[in-house]
Amino acid sequence: MLRNKGRIKNHLIDYYYKLKEPPYSKHNLMALIACANHLNRTIINLVRTNQTYDYTKDSH
């Protein structure tokens, strides 16, 4: 995730670093699983509504 932090605007990377900061301070594996669940919900919602991903429309 560190490689993409500065180059690509992505809500999953933002969410990962939000989980890593206090007061959450999740471990790496827990944060990755939470990001995978978040990605799954995002993909399902995009497919159901027939939309494409747009960083500016996403709620962080």
Short description:
Helix content is 53%, strand content 0%.
Strand count, sense and closure of the main sheet? Answer: none
Q: Uncertain regions: pLDDT < 50 for 5+ in a row? A: none
What is the count of DSSP helices, taking H or I runs of 4+ residues? 2
Query: What's the count of strands?
Result: 0
Instruction: Kindly give the count of domains.
Output: 1
Sheet/helix structural class = mainly alpha
Q: Shape, please? A: globular
Oligomer: single chain
Q: What share of residues are in beta strands?
A: under 5%
Gyration radius over CA: 12 Å
First-last Cα distance: 17 Å
Helix content: 40-55%
Instruction: Give average pLDDT, whole number.
Output: 84
> What's the SSE pattern?
HH
For the structure shown, list the relevant keywords.
0% strand, mainly alpha, 60 residues, globular, 2 helices
Description:
The protein is an all-alpha fold. The protein has one domain (2-49). It contains 2 helices and no strands. The chain has helices at 11-20, 28-49. The chain is globular. The model has no long low-confidence stretch (mean pLDDT 84).
